[in-house]
Amino acid sequence: MTVLAGIDAGTQSIKVLVYDADRREVLDSASAPLDLISGEDGSREQHPSDWVHAMEACFDRFDPGLRARIAALSVSGQQHGFVPLDAAGRVLAPAKLWNDTSTTAECSRIMDALGGATKTIASAGNPILAGYTASKLPWTKAHRPDAYAKLATILLPHDYLNFVLTGELWMEHGDASGTGWLDVRTRTWSPDLLRATDADRDLGDCLPPLVAHDTLFDIAPASAARLGLPTTAKVAVGGGDNMMAAIGTGCVGEGRLSMSLGTSGTLFAHASRPIVSDDGDWAAFCSSTGGWLPLICTMNCTVVTEQVARLFGFSTREGDAHIHATPPGAQGLTMLPFLGGERTPDLPLGKGVLAGLDPHNMSPAHLYRAAMEGATYALRYGFDAFVAAGMRFERIVLTGGGANSAAWRQMVADVFDLPVDVPRQAEGAAFGAALQALWALERSQGSDATIESLVGAHVTTDARQACTPDPARAEAYRAPYRRYLQHLEAVMPLFRPGSP
Ligand SMILES: Nc1ncnc2c1ncn2[C@@H]1O[C@H](COP(=O)(O)OP(=O)(O)O)[C@@H](O)[C@H]1O
Ligand SMILES: O=C(CO)[C@@H](O)[C@H](O)COP(=O)(O)O
């Protein structure tokens, strides 16, 4: 029996699932919440030690007999977080996260040093947007000089958990591409980007080696003992949560499109070559399976529905009733959901906007609908850029916490006018991590299984949750979506740097 563990270090919680690959069954799963340290300057941070404690708390909940059967594991993590370590491997400061917009000025400075956004994209494939790791380095230099002085290694959140598990330092190409320092066309660090980020030192010395996606490491004996795992357990390279969700939702072949409704909203497609947007309309990331993963990320997804629900004292689970009680378009109410600044469109200093309030739509239900529609339209805006570039998709595979909502699943089908599938394993990123561990383990044992064949055998969809677009509702969403775009166009200048 081959038993794997998949660990997903998301923004709001750590989730772990244990998967029996022979019976194709999740044997157990656990999650532990994480706190976010938020500042009014847009900073969003977490203590890496909290990730470790949450991961341990999850394993503690599993039966010791089950833990003892885990042959391999893999870690998925929220992308872009900056984990600074000293030469002894100690964390020097809280990790600045993917949704931290306090480094907006540093993003501009890095791109200015390269001659602007277009030249930055020409250098390495991506602009340096708020949230990407690169801008957190000059911010640390300016605001945490002690940490900068002692900085020896930079890791991403999932790399840090890998370091805790194995005592080894590495990065893999998927999550590394979210630093902004990786030239995604050559899959090597870009000397231009590293120099533009910090002209005073060779940042390449702080970056661990990049390893191939099917590498396996030994678990450190102390970690095995702490988690109750066998000392023979292997640790696969892992990846960013979107890269792992790509595996867990079957997005490993051309033409596949997956969407995650989590703290962030993401939309990503598989590509067998780098797909760079000259205008930076999407993130040209690498996948964690040897390919590429053009991706759209919105910073405000379930975080918005959750805040509106909390404001009116109901749970997101109860929110579906409010969606059913209101018509598409929320009777003219539009929400631009940029509560924490936004990446798509690039408005890190953006704020939420409610437009079109009138006596008929000023109700908790309309506001909840406007929040869900706003979060969905924001992803549709990114999708339109994919389509304008010639990408074509026939279906969407949905994952993330928001996919638990039947109303949201149907809204996605109607707004995108595409059928929606939902995998049986709802935790796409954690499941993808377990599958990556299985793949690397099988390859280490001589198998020539491809990720496509493995995913084909293990990722199945739940017919009860599938949705097809309803023509009338798809039509009913067209004008409200146009209205969303008009409001967006109108307010964008207000949120540009330098505006009052
Ligand atoms: N039934 C539901 N309806 C709407 N949102 C939901 C529902 N169930 C969970 N969520 C939302 O899913 C989010 C958690 O999703 P998840 O993908 O685990 O996030 P992350 O990986 O960013 O931590 C929470 O914000 C929660 O509000
Ligand atoms: O920044 C991005 C992708 O570029 C986010 O998708 C993060 O990876 C956080 O993911 P969740 O916690 O929302 O799953």
Largest sheet: 7 strands, mixed
> Hetero groups bound?
adenosine-5'-diphosphate, 5-O-phosphono-D-xylulose
- Looking at the structure, the CATH topology of the largest domain is Nucleotidyltransferase, domain 5
Share of residues in strands? 15-25%
Describe this structure in words.
Pfam families: FGGY_C, FGGY_N. With 500 residues, the protein is α/β, with parallel strands linked by helices. It folds into two domains: 241 residues, ATPase, nucleotide binding domain (Nucleotidyltransferase, domain 5, 2-Layer Sandwich); 142 residues, ATPase, nucleotide binding domain (Nucleotidyltransferase, domain 5, 2-Layer Sandwich), CATH 3.30.420.40. It is built from 19 helices and 24 strands. The strands form seven sheets. Strands 1, 2, 3, 6, 14, 15 and 16 form a seven-stranded mixed β-sheet that branches. The chain has a six-stranded mixed β-sheet with strand order 19-20-18-17-23-24, with helices on both faces. A hairpin with a 5-residue loop joins strand 4 and strand 5. Helix 12 runs antiparallel to helix 14 and helix 13 crosses helix 14. The model has no long low-confidence stretch (mean pLDDT 97). The protein binds adenosine-5'-diphosphate (ADP) and 5-O-phosphono-D-xylulose. 5-O-phosphono-D-xylulose binds next to helix 11.
